[in-house]
Input
Amino acid sequence: TIWGSWLNDQVDTNATFQVSLWTDIPALVGQSPFSHPGSLVCSSLFYPPQTPGSALHYQYRQYATNLQERFYNPNVPGLPGLIGADTEIWRYDFFPFVPSCFVQDGGPFANGRTYWLTVSYLPQTSGGGNYVFGWKTSTKHWKDAAVFGSSPAWNPMFDPRTGAQLDLDRKSTRLNSSH
Output
């Protein structure tokens, strides 16, 4: 399950998402002040519920309305990265194959492991609108950096208004960002 929103409340009801699971490269003093994704464990495409013949799908529903949120894109040159607004949060529930690689190995009581998850919105190539999706996954704050980019060049995210390091939640465009 992830929660996300669409830039300017323009919702793509036929969205395809790529969900990927990565190993963790922990922060190391003197080398990297933030952890980031390591090796790709697996990746799958998830199709809208109305797609015929699709084994991997998701369900979605509106989760909250009447909000005032902003989108952040750290790659926008010459701008502070705040690119728009939205007023709705949507909930997306993904259903991978069972068994699959999307299984937590370890846990808080058995040599817990950390994994990174990337969720990428894949716009339709023909006749698609100008849709932009951003997502959040956690109500817990791990006191580690949210990152953007792609392997191996991950970069920490900073709030353009305050310069504070952002903590493992994401609102951006089609970046390969992670939690």
Notes: The chain has no helices and eleven strands. The first strand starts at residue 2 and ends at 6. The chain has a mean pLDDT of 77.
